[in-house]
Automatic annotation (TrEMBL):
Residues 708-801 form the FDX-ACB domain. The lineage of its organism: Bacteria, Bacillati, Bacillota, Bacilli, Lactobacillales. This is Phenylalanine--tRNA ligase beta subunit. Binds 2 magnesium ions per tetramer. Residues 407-483 form the B5 domain.
Length: 801
């Protein structure tokens, strides 16, 4: 919401606070101010000039003009605008002037003719194309005929104004109008507001003789129409155009500009129709029928559904209610009779329609958040009086409406002790009563300290006791509220899951990983990309902002791959990242909410160690990532890694499922080359761990084991095995031999190739034996090795070498 400080001063005449003061005060009382700007900022030496003569330069579109700027002599300026004419008042940038983009005007020659300045269009002053009433090719801007030659142009164009940009939250939609902002500023400073009125003059002819209105849906509480005959469409006066431009609205013509003025002034959207183009004198407001079509003002044909509200004439839609009018009934230069609409539309319906068609407008935004239901007729009458004043029309008698809807009166109460208890203050009756009066609320005091407060219709966000407490707090001043520490006998502590998250983060970063935060919403394909199960159920938004952010993830790996792609596309080839977050699994809950499961995911791509003069590069491999996972899972009992080829997006020969105490807790492995190619990344290894499962399987405590006092004994064993057997298979057989003195098994060599039979491989292990009490004898070691060897031969058909 852009607020003109000049306009605000008219509505709050006693206001002395500067825009900078307002910026601070409003931000500390509940409405954030984005900033304060001035249209004239960066511009200089721009004055009103009058064209005394104009001579065309042969074979060009240029003119040599003599321009009076209030100096002793006229300035010669070469101009190429098509609308240059003698007697025209124009904007002149003198030599040395600064215009848009900090461009400095200098003396120059154009086609050999000296030019001592520049005649300007509004875009050359920095006026945005979206709010500029003139296209650049239409020529230079014409100043009012009564503008004084030589005066600065800033006051004429309201460029000496200061624009306050407010960031309005949905709960304070009452401030989406100048009247609402005036009430707010008046309440903050304790100042009265002054709203100008207009006397509406009606002719004898009745509106009901011209048109009828009916509504066939409960989504439209009221719909009102006035008719103005004999209007003459023309540009609006300059004051109205500049007021709209400073509010961020493009001037169009005197009728449409009035509706936009009322929108900014009252916050009440209006719409003007060309009555003669209706094709009927009966207006029906209803829901659209599936398959109906409407060409809107932007000349795009829209396919309507039963979710849309439409204004119809003769059974045909002529406007998309609350969002945009139809092209067939828009105001044109030939319009002579105007049908002026004011209504209340269901905010939810308007929001769905505007989002579906991507037609977000000032009007739809206000209907979505709410409008002052008590001022619909007043806003309509004010607009009708303005149109009659500016366009010379005659207003027909009376308003044709679907219902005389009136908002319900809202009365709520609160006691002084409740206010003080909530805020921790010691305010007295007079102070709190004064705040309610400043806010424009009706207030009476009952039973000594009970405030009975009548809420005006412009503050539809207030209905309960807590709302009154908030109003007292913000007007009294949040910075004036006492600050105290919370009372409590015990200090807070982290939950077990929070402790685990911190431990996991510390371990991941100690292993060289950097934390990232990915998107919880992804495409449906990415959401299930790492899931082996087909048609895995997911949770999707009904109305996503984009197609790429519509489904809740059930795995975090795709998000990490996107981040790796982003970095590698920017020449950062070595990426080691992790994320701690939630995945969303399907549930059987009646409300359809998914189960949120905390997870850890990590991804590494590139080199672990880059090449240098002393050694070669060390690329990341499966065992490096597996080692990181083992570090993170240190302390967990019976940790196993089982090879799997069931995950479609993972390498079938370099992927393992992780289990602890027989419970699945995650996986680790290489991204399938085809998947890596799809993401446009180099060879990448990933892992994912279920933090909830880790929390449940985490040992209750670490039990200290006394360090043995005797030396350990090692023996090596090498064997020839079937090539399909894995290291996990061998270790499982060795540990199942139940040799109590065996403390460690470590693979130190794997060979497959020349001098070995086909489909065979050699694997060599170091076995460590140790007891706590005494050194082992040769016989004990020999018996232990024999027992292990026997198991390997029986279980794996191993050939001991």
């Amino acid at each position: 919401m852009l607020v003109s400080y000049k306009w605000l001063k008219e509505l709050v005449p006693e206001l002395t606070a500067t825009p900078a003061d307002l910026e601070y005060k409003m931000s500390t009382t509940g409405i954030e101010v984005e900033g304060v700007t001035s249209p004239q900022e960066g511009l200089s030496k721009l004055v009103v000039g009058e064209i005394l003569s104009s001579e065309a330069i042969p074979e060009t579109h240029l003119h040599i003009t003599q321009v009076n700027v209030g100096a002793d002599e006229a300035l010669q300026i070469v101009c190429g605008a098509p609308n240059v004419r003698v007697g025209m008042k124009v904007i002149v940038a003198l030599v040395g002037a600064r215009i848009a983009d900090n461009y400095k005007i200098k003396k120059g020659k154009i086609r050999g003719v000296e030019s001592l300045g520049m005649l300007c269009a509004l875009d050359e002053l920095g006026v945005d194309e979206k709010i500029n009433p003139m296209k650049h090719e239409e020529g230079i801007f014409e100043m009012p005929a009564d503008a004084t030659v030589g005066d600065s142009i800033f006051s004429y164009l309201d460029m000496d104004d200061e624009i306050i940009e407010l960031s309005i939250t949905p709960n304070r939609a009452d401030a989406l109008s100048m009247r609402g902002v005036a009430y707010e500023v008046g309440a903050i400073y304790g100042l009265p507001v002054h709203f100008p009125t207009k006397e509406l003059t009606e002719i004898q002819k009745r509106t009901s003789e011209k048109i009828s209105v009916s509504v066939s849906t409960d989504k439209v509480p009221t719909y009102k129409i006035r008719v103005i005959e004999g209007v003459k469409i023309a540009p609006s006066p300059l004051w109205l155009q500049t007021r709209l431009m400073n509010a961020g609205v493009r001037p169009i013509n005197n009728v449409v500009d009035v509706t936009n003025f009322i929108l900014m002034y009252y916050g009440q959207p209006l719409h003007s129709f060309d009555f003669d183009r209706f094709g009927s004198d009966e207006i029906l407001v209803r829901t659209a029928q599936d398959g109906e079509k409407l060409t809107t003002l932007d000349h795009i044909e829209r396919d309507l559904t039963a979710d849309d509200l439409v204004i119809t004439s003769n059974g045909v839609p002529v406007a998309l209610a609350g969002v945009m009018g139809g092209a067939d009934s828009e105001i044109t230069n030939e319009t002579t009779t105007v049908a002026l609409e004011a209504a209340l539309f269901n905010g939810t319906s308007i929001r769905k329609t505007s989002q579906k068609f991507a037609l977000r407008s000032e009007a739809s935004s206000r209907f979505e958040k709410g409008v002052n239901e008590g001022l619909v007729t007043e806003a309509l009458d004010f607009a009708a009086a303005m149109i009659a004043e500016l366009a010379g029309g005659a207003v027909l008698q009376g308003v044709v409406e679907s219902s005389d809807y009136q908002p319900k009166k809202v009365v709520t109460s609160i006691t002084l002790s409740r206010v003080n208890a909530a805020l921790g203050t010691n305010l007295n009756l007079d102070t709190v009563e004064k705040i309610f009066v400043q806010l424009g609320f009706g207030v009476t005091i009952e039973a000594g300290e009970k405030f009975v407060v009548e809420i005006p219709s412009r503050r539809w966000d207030i209905s309960i006791e807590a709302d009154l407490v908030e109003e007292v707090a913000r007007i009294y001043g949040y910075d004036n509220l006492p600050s105290t520490l919370p009372l409590g006998d015990e200090a807070g502590e982290l939950t077990p899951l929070q402790k685990l998250r911190r431990k996991v983060r510390t371990s991941a970063e100690a292993n060289g990983l950097s934390e990232v935060i990915g998107y919880s919403l992804v495409t449906k394909e990415k959401a299930t990309e790492m899931i082996a199960e087909k048609n895995f159920p997911t949770t999707s938004l009904l109305m996503p902002m984009t197609e790429e952010r519509q489904t809740l993830r059930v795995n975090m790996i795709p998000g990490l791959l996107d981040i790796i792609n982003y970095n590698q596309n920017r020449k950062i080839s070595n990426v080691a990242i992790y994320e701690v977050g939630n995945i969303f699994l399907p549930s059987t809950a009646q409300d359809g909410r998914p189960i949120e499961v905390p997870n850890l995911a990590l991804a590494i791509s590139g080199n672990v160690v880059d090449a240098s003069y002393s050694h070669k590069a060390t690329p990341v491999d499966f065992f490096h990532v597996k080692g990181i996972v083992e570090n993170i899972l240190s302390g967990y009992e019976d940790l196993t890694f089982t090879a799997t080829s069931e995950m479609p997006s993972m390498h079938p020969g370099r992927t393992a499922v992780i289990a602890a105490n027989g419970h699945h807790i995650g996986f680790v492995g290489q991204i399938h080359p085809a998947t890596a190619k799809k993401y446009d990344i180099s060879e990448t290894y990933v892992a994912a761990l279920d933090l909830q499962a880790m929390l449940e399987l985490k040992p209750a405590q670490t039990i200290f084991k006394e360090i043995p006092k005797v030396q350990a004994v090692t023996r090596d064993i090498a064997m020839l095995l079937d090539a399909k057997l894995t290291n996990a298979d061998v270790i499982s057989v060795i540990t199942d031999s139940r040799v109590k003195t065996l403390t460690k098994v470590e693979l130190f060599d794997v060979y497959q190739g020349i001098n070995l039979p086909a489909h065979k491989k050699s694997m060599a292990y170091t076995l460590t034996f140790q007891t706590a009490e005494q050194s082992m004898t040769d016989d004990e070691i020999t018996n232990a090795m024999a027992k292990i060897t026997t198991h390997l031969i029986e279980k794996l058909n191993a050939e001991i070498r």
